[in-house]
Amino acid sequence: MFKKLLIILILFLLPKVSYAGGYDIFGIGIYDIKFDGSQTNEAADIRYERRFGNSVVEIGPESENFFYLKPFVGLETTTESAIYVLGGIYLEDNLGTLFTGDDSNFIFTPSFGVGLYDDGDGKKLGNDIQFRTTLEFSYQLKNKNRIGISFGHISNANLGDKNPGAEILSFSYQIPFD
Description:
It is built from 3 helices and 10 strands. It has helices at residues 2-12, 15-18, 95-99, and strands spanning 22-31, 43-52, 57-58, 68-78, 83-90, 93-94, 106-118, 129-140, 146-155, 166-177.
C-alpha cells in the first residue's frame, strides 16, 4: 500500500509545482467529531499539507485569484493509527477583498482531495479510496505565517459497501515557503 502512496506523491510533485512557493500546513484536531454526541471513534487528528502557489487551472477573470485552482499534497494520521495520504486542489480568497474590496488578513480556503486511507485501529470508512472536502478560515500574521481553523469531511462517495464518513475539526499553523 505504501508503494501506491509514494506513487501518488510523486505524481503531484511535478517540476512546475515543486518549485512554486506556497504554504506548509501543520494541523492538529479532532477526528470523527459530531456535534450531536453520536461520534463512535473520536481520536486526535494530526495533519501535514504542502500547498503549492502555482495555479494548475485558471478559470474566471484574471483579476480574481479566487478562481485559481492550486494543487496540494497531504498526510493525515490519527491516534487510532489511521493514515490518509492525499492530493487535491484548493483555492483561496482574501475575505476583505471578497466582501469590501479591500485586502484584510482573513483568508478563506476551500479544498477538495482524493487519496488512499488505511483504517488502522480507527473508524472503518468502507474503502481504501477516500475523498476529502474542507473549509478553512485563517488569519495572516505580520510575518506572513497564518493560524487557521478548518472543518473537513472524509467519505468514500459510496464506492464501498458502507460509507460512514468522518468529520474533522482542526487548528493549523501555516508557514510560507519559496
